[in-house]
Structure formats: structure tokens, C-alpha cells
Amino acid sequence: MSDFVDETYKRVEEVINYKRLNIRSFEEIIDVSNNSIGTAIRRKSSFKSNVLNKILHSFPEINPTWLLTGKGEMFLNNIDKTNEPASKYNLLDIKSKVKDNLIHLLLEDKEVKEAIATQVLEALKK
What is the pLDDT, as a whole number, of residue 99? Predict the structure, then answer.
């Protein structure tokens, strides 16, 4: 059996604090229902993939490997670690780096690879 513990809620809370946002404004930015993030953080619950995708879409400077596993830095390499809006960054470069980090993550962590594969299969059924 695995020792994997999902502590994504801690990293989401860290992003909220770093961005100097309150939970409600963070929920509005990533377009999720009122109090869903706050409830998950209080309950120390994991987030569904759609919420994590919304976070990465809204904050493309966030390192997906770090968000999912806690490994690496909070921000993608070579990106200014400021609180400026993501729109100021070169989104094509960021998308490329996100893709590279996700591929690396898939190849590195068997449990994450299995979880993503399951979610992809479920999405294809819809």
C-alpha cells in the first residue's frame, strides 16, 4: 500500500497567501462555487482535477508539479515571482513549460500517472 498523502490543500492555501487574496476572491478568480475552496482547506480535503486545472489556468506561473506533489518550486523556472497578473507573461512560453512539467510528472510518479489515466478514461466516457 502507498504512503501517498494528498496535501494539495496546503499548497492552494500557500498560493492564496502569496497572492495576498482572501479565499472568496480566489474562488472568483478561478471560477468555482462560493466557499468550495475554503471548505476543502478547512477539511484538509483533496481537490478534484477540474479545480486544480482552473487554478493552473488562472495562475499559469504556478508549477503544476509543485501544486500536485509539492516537489520543486511554487513557480515555473524563469518567471518573475511577483504578484503581477498572469496576463503580463508570455502565455505560450508558460503553456510549453506547463506541458513539459506535466510530462515529467507523469513519467516520475506512478500514482499520479494512474490517477490521471483514470480521469482521462472517465472524461472520454462522457
Answer: 72
Q: What is the pLDDT of residue 93?
A: 64
pTM of the model: 0.59
Q: Report d(CA 61, CA 51) in Å as an integer.
A: 16
- The three state secondary structure string of the chain is CCCCCCCHHHHHHHHHHHCCCCHHHHHHHHCCCCCHHHHHHHHCCCCCHHHHHHHHHHCCCECHHHHHHCCCCCECCCCCCCCCCHHHCCHHHHHHHHHHHHHHHHHHCHHHHHHHHHHHHHHHHC
